[in-house]
Structure formats: C-alpha cells, structure tokens
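Much of what follows relies on a compact textual record of a protein's fold. With that in mind, consider the following protein and its fold in token form.
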Amino acid sequence: MVLPYALNRPPGDMPMDKPIFTRQGDGPLLTPADVPFHVNGILNPGVAELDGEVILLVRLESRQGISHLRVARSKNGVDGWRIADRPLLEPDIPDYPFEEWGCEDPRITRMGEREWIIAFTAYSRYGPAVALAKTTDFETVTRLGVVLPPTNKDATVLPRQFNGDWIMLHRPVTSGQEHIWFVSSPHDLDHWGDPGVLLAERSGPWWDGVRIGVGAPPIETDDGWLLLYHGVKEMAERPVYRLGVALLHRDDPRKVLARANEWIFAPETDYEQRGLVPNVVYTCGALLRGDEVWMYYGAADTVIGMATAKLRDILSFVWKHDYICHIGREKGMVR
C-alpha cells in the first residue's frame, strides 16, 4: 500500500544544499574499452576490500545481451584496475537454470574475517530472481542458488544477526508496485520468511514515485544503518534513476528512522545521461573509508563511475530533509 506521505518543505529562505557527493576523476572509472575483450557495457559493481586491495565485482554485458560477474582489483580503489581472466559467476551452468540469461547486479556483504556473501540477480526466461553465493577469496564461489523467486531483485544481506535472525532487503514486484521489502532467516540463509515493507515507492510526481530498490548494502553508523537506494521517475515516457538515502534502526533495521525527501545524487554528466540506458545512476556497492563513503555506481548502464562524500554530510542531509508519515506511524503502517 502506498501511504499518503506529507511533504516536509524546508523554509523558503533556507540556503541551497551544496553537492554531497563529489565525482572522482574527469570521466568514468571503467569503460568497455578497459575490458580486454568485446563487451556491451561494464556496470553496477559490488565492492569489497581484501588483502589491501579494493575489489569490484563488475557486471559485464556481452554483445549477446547476457551478463556475467567478474572481479576487478585495484591497490588504491581508483585506478590500475586488473580484470580477472575468468568470470566469478556466469550463466549457462546446467545445475543453475535460473541464471541462463545472466548473473547481474551483485551486492557484497562481509560476513566474517574472510567470508563474504554475494546477493545477485539470477535472470532467466522465468524472470529475475534473487540468488546468493559465498566466497572467501573472490576466486571461487559456492552457490546457494535462488532463495527468492521472480519477479524480484535488488537484494542485500545485512552483515550480522538481529535477535538471532539474518535480515535481507529485496525488491519484489507486487501488483505492479515495486517497494523495498525485508525478510528474515533464523540461521541457514537458505530459507527466508516473515516479510514486511521497509520503504514504499511514493507514487505520483515524486522522484522515487515509480519504483525504488536497494542500492549499496547498508553501512553501520552511530546514527543507524545508512541505506542508499535508487528511485525512478518517468519523464517524457523515459525513466530517470536517481539515488536517495534513508536511516534504519541500528538494533532492528526493519524500522526506518529517517528518509530524505530529496535525492542525494542524480545523473548530471554526459556519461550518466548518455549510454545504453540514458539518465541512470545506480549503485550496488560503497565502502566506508575513514570518514568518507566511497560509492561505486553504474552510469547509463554502460560504464562505472565513482563518487565520494563525507559520512557526516550524508547523515546531516538525511536528518535535514527527513519527512515522517505521522498518520502511517500512528496506525502502525510504517515501521
């Protein structure tokens, strides 16, 4: 159900916000020309750190239109990227028919000292589904397979248990609506249940009114879990993807503390506005490095960009621009 949110407008004399995220470099971080074989696009990377390197798990779309996931490594997370010789996750494996049309849009969660879980979209003739895999070295993986059936995507697992439960955020399509939901698993990461709506698309003319989805895996802060998410608005019958921000309760991330009513990052450069899918910024991964958030994102479904922001600036933004649906909260309809 889409709730009738009240718009919290800042005072008219409030100064305009400065940009929170700053793009790094003069252009994209990685382009199809950086891949040592022909690809249609390089996009939507998950991100992790291992042995003093930044690892991007990039989605590479072939000229057939099929995507696989491959590791790129960099000493400084900015340049000197080394792309692996073989995929980490690829389709056309007979035991995994629900990946036949592609492995897409990975989100990486560190689960231990040297263990990560990868939530990705398994795409097949049956539609997009949520699949999980584990790795300890980003050279080999153990597939857990599809855990949430179509139509579903944009999933991420939080890095620790809450009252004995693992929590996963995801974006199913329900009656034509696309909200961010949560589910929980008591121990095994294979069986998920106890669903609920975390964030709703806002409908109408809102920048996130058509659909929303999880961006990078939530980052734990003193204020709560920082969630970057994408929102879509149709303009002249074309979608525009922007990024927003919300805060989730630190001890129970199924509860929303704040949600900014404005976007925090939008397609503004030529490489974000022109490409296979114009006017798209879409993140699957971000790192907290010191007091900065390093966000890696797909631009126009064609290339990868990078932008950084001070953590305190992001938190200030979401609190400053927060709105609360008092009616929904009083009725128990908003967590």
